[in-house]
Amino acid sequence: MNEEPERLQKKIANAGVTSRRKAEDLIRTGHVTVNGKVVTEMGVKVDSHDHVEVDGVPLTPERKVYYLFNKPRQVISAVSDNKGRKVVTDYFKDIPERIYPIGRLDYDTDGVLLLTDDGEFANLLMHPRYELEKTYVAKVKGIPDGAAIKTLQNGVELDKRKTAPAKVKVLSTDHAKKTAIVQITIHEGMNHQVKKMFAKVGSQVEKLKREQYGFLRVDNLASGKYRKLKPQEIAELRKLANGKHYR
Fold first, then answer.
1. What local confidence, expressed as pLDDT, does residue 242 receive?
2. Residue 160 falls inside a structural domain
3. CA distance linking residue 214 with residue 184, whole number of Å
4. Which parts of the sequence belong to the RNA-binding S4 domain (predicted)?
5. What is the extent of the structural domain holding 49?
6. Secondary element (H or E) of residue 163
7. Which of 109, 135, 154, 179 could form a disulfide with 212 if both were Cys (CB 3.0 to 4.6 A apart)?
């Protein structure tokens, strides 16, 4: 199936030649040809049938990469850390592409994390309007009662705004230790959101794992391991996050 037409500057940027803004400068100053003709106007769209050259060099589309990673605890969801702590990209030393995490997991939280070098795909998944459901399993100190569970389900006031309704299920309780294992599904991405939500109802998160992102799980991945996303998984993620907004 042929790709949909896209703006010329985006095509150049996606091929890894330069940023989109600099691609626009190259177009304006006559460095770009489409099917042998110099193009200097913005807004021109091209597709897979068009032959694009920058300074006489044909574009080679850059193939984007997408990974599912089982993030360990005590690892920063970033590409670098000024305190010298381990970061998620330390586990991808053999990957030539400059990848980065989509969103983040707290330093002491493990589980599903996606990494890519596709900025538009990452922005799509993180957009507040289209963000995917994320399911966590929390070990909490202070067993939440029915009223607390109802409060979590309806949303709690955090940082001067109410969280969206959540799915909450108590998986097990230990009344002797006054702890519980609770599954919670949210679709927002506020900083430390799950921990803050439980704190609001009098429970302290002692251990937290993100076990699912959309439909993706890390059941067969050991901690610190990763795999490439399958093409159908990438397509399904775009669809779940309302793929018509991708382009």
1. 64
2. yes
3. 13
4. 6-69
5. 6-58
6. none
7. 135
